[in-house]
Design brief:
Order of helices and strands: EHEHEHEHEHEHEHHEH
Strand order of the largest sheet: 1-2-3-4-5-6-7-8
Number of helices: 9
CATH class: Alpha Beta
GO biological process, one term: aromatic amino acid family biosynthetic process
Largest sheet: 8 strands, parallel, barrel
Number of domains: 1
Organism: Rubrobacter tropicus
Oligomer: single chain
Strand content: 5-15%
Enzyme class: transferase
Structural class: alpha/beta
Protein name: 3-deoxy-7-phosphoheptulonate synthase
Helix content: 25-40%
Bound molecules: phosphoenolpyruvate, manganese (II) ion
CATH superfamily: Aldolase class I
Distance between the termini: 36 Å
Number of strands: 8
InterPro entries: Aldolase_TIM, Class-I_DAHP_synthase, DAHP1/KDSA, DAHP_syn_2
Shape: globular
Amino acid sequence: MDVSQTVKTDVKTQNGMIRPNTFRVIAGPCTVESYDQFVASAKAVKEAGFEYVRGGAFKPRTSPYSFQGLGEEGLKIMSEVAGELGLKVVTEVMDPYDIELVMEHAQVLQIGARNMANFSLLKRIGAAIAGTDHGVLLKRGLSATVQEWILAAEYVTAEGGDNVVLCERGIRTFETATRFTLDLSAVIVAKRLTDLPVIVDPSHAAGRRDLVVPLSKASVAAEADGLMVESHHDPQEALCDGEQALPVEALLGLKEELSPFAGAM
Ligand code: PEP
Ligand code: MN
């Protein structure tokens, strides 16, 4: 199938969601660990000048013995804190059963890399957000082609949920220096094939914080429409993905670091 003939061109740009030509940064911890942890991390996101905070309540962990997230309690913490700070919440939904609940607490529903090809979840989310102000952030699958990724997005848009943002988060390769391999060519190719905004998550791609800022700059140069970066007020103590989390000082400096590259910020 020729993907270029199937993609949407009438992307909704209202609703406060990430819009093409307007660079947006989503930042925040991998997961919500407690009220105090999320407040501290979210305040840094606000201070850094960003309007979207992320946090996981339902976590797709590799091991069933790792911390799985706080579930509904985590959602409540996020919506309360974000409401007080005037931030919008981005969080992952893994189970169709939780869609309505997540929509009560978040403006953007994330579909994780491991669920990119969960077509029944994609359809249910598409139908649920249709006609609402909610958006969807669709991560690229760990080994998905650009075509598979775009067609996955169309499972959402075909149900009427047309406020979809694609997110490149690294793919599996033979390389072990990084957790995954950030595929910036996919960003450029996807942007040629679809009008959906394409953002980059350098944190999960790299798996190490020293590469997050350089890869963010490269993403801007590749004309990504935004970034999703993990940050934590105390990365050493993070329950999940601390090694890739930007500490507060680095988050506060991110806008400045990117400003020579991102005119629209
Ligand atoms: C995340 O953003 O928290 C996450 C688990 O990402 P991914 O699905 O890309 O691994
Ligand atoms: Mn993470």
